[in-house]
Write a structure and sequence with these properties.
alpha/beta, disordered N terminus, five-stranded mixed beta sheet, 15 helices
């Protein structure tokens, strides 16, 4: 698609504005992957039935979208409201103020919030990989292949306390490239949100920008060039991105309700693996961009939305960012709950003993718990 850069941002602004109003509801008539109603959790067995889920304007959070649209939350006895936020900090505040019961928060901000004393517990996953950096095309003109080194001498927009920022610093450190101003350094300019960072590309002073899904594919479709996707970098292989996070007190107080929530997300994951076309339509109700871009982000191999808490991967990431000086070290075990996912998956396997997808999830969980 060839369009001028100035026109791009008109389209982007319209898309991003529309995202705030995309909290729609609906149900699918497809019941092939749903358990029968007599197997659903009884609402009376739950300590709490009204749930507020906070998410970002990202295809990474599709498990929540699909669970809502396909009726899995309802079937598990939960009335879930999805609300769009613009940053991890807002999501954390929502949890601590009890305005949210669950939030999809990036792994790096989740870790830093925990290290700073916020009583927030990770209990599930939302996405692995799925982000990278994009650059204005003139800076790679004539190059057939490039890596993070093309950012030298450039002003790069990013979001402080984000997975993308930490990954960039890991790659720059590996290449022995310093952060700062100068032709052999990379100057990182921080913004409060991904939306603000992305929109900064319209300024002459910004050359490249961090991008989580769907911004990476959106940018490429609009003529920008992808510096790298994290899924293609060996140092960032299987990098846990967004996590399911709740207040520690709430998880302790409402264990059955959170287990029902997790069952809905696991069922949503199964649906995404078996119903590609409908999954894309479900996601489009929340992320209003072209369906082919949604398909690229979800099924292009650049990221995977899996509900597994992947504790091993998150602990490894914590070690990396502590070594970077990104955050202080702390005991993450106290703020990591894998039992909710473990028990939810066990229930679904009991209800569906021959299901291959649930068996694969169990194998992965046993390997990476």
């Amino acid at each position: 698609m060839k369009i001028k850069i100035t026109a791009v941002f008109i389209a982007v602004s319209l898309i991003l504005t529309a995202l705030a109003g995309c909290n729609t509801q609906g149900n699918s008539s497809d019941t092939t992957s749903k358990v029968s109603s007599d197997k659903s959790v009884s609402a009376g067995a739950l300590e709490k039935t009204s749930f507020n889920l906070g998410h970002l304007n990202s295809t990474a959070h599709l498990l929540g979208f699909v669970a809502k649209e396909e009726g899995y939350f309802d079937e598990e006895g939960l009335d879930v409201t999805l609300t769009l936020f613009s940053s991890a900090a807002e999501l954390s505040t929502g949890l601590e103020s009890e305005k949210l019961d669950v939030a999809f928060i990036g792994s790096v901000p989740s870790i830093t919030f925990q290290s700073q004393g916020h009583d927030l517990t990770i209990f599930g996953g939302a996405m692995t990989n799925g982000h990278g950096y994009v650059i204005k095309p003139q800076y790679v003109e004539g190059l057939k292949k490039w890596d993070v080194s093309v950012l030298k001498g450039r002003n790069v927009a990013s979001v402080k306390n984000s997975v993308q920022d930490a990954e960039l610093q890991i790659l720059l450190k590996d290449k022995k490239i310093e952060i700062g101003k100068g032709k052999d350094k990379v100057n990182i300019v921080y913004f409060d949100s991904q939306k603000d960072a992305y929109n900064a590309l319209q300024n002459d002073s910004i050359d490249a920008v961090s991008a989580y899904s769907p911004y990476t594919s959106l940018a490429e479709s609009q003529g920008y060039k992808i510096v790298y996707r994290c899924s293609e970098e060996p140092l960032l292989e299987n990098q846990p991105c967004c996590r399911q996070v709740a207040s520690t007190a709430a998880l302790s107080k409402y264990p059955n309700s959170y287990q029902a929530f997790e069952k809905a997300l696991i069922r949503a994951y199964k649906f995404t693996q078996e119903n590609q076309e409908q999954t894309i339509k479900d996601v489009k109700k929340y992320i209003d961009i072209e369906e082919d871009l949604i398909k690229t982000e979800i099924y292009g191999g650049y990221g995977t939305s899996v509900p597994d808490p992947d504790k091993q991967g998150t602990v490894a990431l914590k070690k990396s960012i502590v070594e970077l000086g990104y955050t202080e070290d702390y005991d993450i075990d106290k703020l990591y709950n894998t039992d909710i996912y473990k028990n939810a998956l066990a229930e679904l396997k009991k209800e569906n003993p021959d299901d291959k997808i649930y068996a694969e999830l169990q194998k992965h969980f046993d390997q990476f718990e």
